Amino acid sequence: MEQLYVIKIGGNIIDDAKRLEHFLEQFAAVQGHKILVHGGGKLATKLAAQMGIQQQMIDGRRITDAETLKIVTMVYAGYVNKNIVAKLQSKDVNAIGITGADAGMIRAHKRVHATIDYGFVGDIDAVDSIKVHQLIRQNLTIVLAPITDDGNGQLLNTNADTIAQEIAKSMSHLYTTSLIYSFEKKGVLTDVNDDNSVIPVITPTLYQQLKSDNKIFAGMLPKLDNAFSAIQAGVKQVIIGEAEQLKELLAGKTGTSIQL
Q1: Which has the closest alpha carbon to 9: 43, 38, 41?
Q2: Of 78, 131, 123, nearest in space to 222 by CA
Q3: Alpha-carbon gap, residue 211 to 32, rounded angstroms
Q4: What's the pLDDT at 60?
Q5: What global pTM score does this model have?
Q6: β-sheet bridge partners, residue 90
Q7: Closest to 85 in 3D by CA, of 95, 73, 70
Q8: Residue 155: enclosing H or E segment and its boundaries?
Q9: Phi first, then psi: what are they for 138, rounded to 5°?
Q10: What is the 3-state secondary structure (H, E, C) of 27-69?
Q11: DSSP three-state, residue 259
């Protein structure tokens, strides 16, 4: 099977024009089939403040009310997505910017929680891997913004890490698929203040031990849960590491590798 890279770029890199440019240069140099999944960075929060729309966060997750949904759709699917597409086009990458709602690519439902109303936040039901495959076959590089829909006309704000994981899982029966979570840190760290405390390999056993010992920063846990879900579902390779070291990440020379 042909190789496919599903690469998620973290929000902190999107906020920094110089770091984003460096990352996109490396992304453009990746040979073969690739999909870029991005978050939104701080621009949505900044715009909401300017418009006087109060933002509510619970455990680092944004509560998406109707007005906030408009903002994240404008920012993620609009400015951030098209800015990345334009920069990739300038680097001879034939990029197409879409959301999960386009062509029914990703179907989701409004999150149901026993005690918290997350508003218009989506949890993924299905990825249409054939439609993704058709775009790849046209030599298009998909740049995917984290907006989905429920099939009944309702847009939903959806976690970009989860989108990357679900895309990688769904494509793993068509391609040899690698999932890369790239962000501002060098990998999964034992000490969040020490960039050199990277754990090179994490297995399920080690993961449970690290969680029991409170050795992993809480914000990293959802990313790791996604990573293990992907590798258990047949994704060939999952690596977490620094965006500016994408070439080294893909070569397995740096970052944290998730293994069974």
Answers
A1: 38
A2: 123
A3: 36
A4: 66
A5: 0.96
A6: none
A7: 95
A8: strand 155-158
A9: -90, 15
A10: HHHCCCEEEEEECCCCHHHHHHHHCCCCCEEECCEEEECHHHH
A11: coil
